[in-house]
Amino acid sequence: AQSVTQPDIHITVSEGASLELRCNYSYGATPYLFWYVQSPGQGLQLLLKYFSGDTLVQGIKGFEAEFKRSQSSFNLRKPSVHWSDAAEYFCAAAPRAGNMLTFGGGTRLMVKP
Amino acid sequence: NAGVTQTPKFQVLKTGQSMTLQCAQDMNHNSMYWYRQDPGMGLRLIYYSASEGTTDKGEVPNGYNVSRLNKREFSLRLESAAPSQTSVYFCASSERTALNNEQFFGPGTRLTVL
Question: Is B44 an interface residue toward A (CB < 8 Å)?
Fold first, then answer.
């Protein structure tokens, strides 16, 4: 079955520190991959997406993600976290032949001053 | 451009009551979706509509019905609400092309069933 796994439920980092959020997928073929962010009380906003080509993808708000086929991973990174980055982050995947997103369980990021 | 709008934002129901959640998009998207979000479980697809006039079940359709009223609007109905349906409900839309699965989300409806 197709699935997306985010191993870390909660992560706390200090402001200014680097961040990496993990995402692993299980699909027969490489899916389309997405990272969304959900600020408290808000809907989901797309940070970045990977369809093909360069495996390092740049997104909004200074985020990037790296697709690694050998590890079935699509980890999200940011070099220096800001307090406003505190939110819940969702990795999602969609099969290339279809149109249905499967979401991971989410990682809640807390930022210490 | 409002994007995806949802009404209401909050709702409290008693067990057995019915209600309809409304969703509209102004991006001329073909596909629309309803998700529920529960702690630790991410978003799970309830129903989707690939195009006007079609609807299909997602991962968790039991207890829900949907109507794709026209290209813009996609409603979700709870005929007899149960406490297990307490959740945050999100509507989303997408163009539905082979190369673009990006979905745009509404702000959500927080539903409590007592």
Answer: yes
User: What is the H or E stretch that residue A19 is in?
Assistant: strand A19-21
Q: Would you say A24 and A7 are in contact if contact means Cβ atoms under 8 Å apart?
A: yes
DSSP helix/strand/coil, B112: strand
- Could you give the CA distance from residue B17 to residue B99 in angstroms, rounded to a whole number? 41
Which of A32, A90, A96 is facing B43, going by the closest CB pair? Answer: A90
Q: Nearest by CB to A101, from B4, B50, B101: name it.
A: B101
For residue B62, give the DSSP letter. Answer: T
Tokens of A8: 């870390």
Rounded to whole angstroms, the Cα distance separating B22 from B66 reads 10
Per residue in A58-79, pLDDT (tens digit) is 999 999 999 999 999 999 999 9
Residue of A nearest to B91 (CA): A43
Which parts of chain B sit beneath pLDDT 50?
none
**């590890």: which residue's tokens?**
A71
Residues of chain A with Cβ-Cβ distance to B54 below 8 Å are none
In this complex, the residue of A9, A43, A99 whose CB is nearest that of residue B50 is A99
In chain A, which residues have their Cβ closer than 8 Å to the Cβ of B98? Answer: 96
Q: What is the pLDDT of residues A85-113, one digit of tens each?
A: 999 999 999 887 666 788 999 999 999 98
From the list B112, B111, B113, B105, the residue with the least C-alpha distance to B4 is: B105
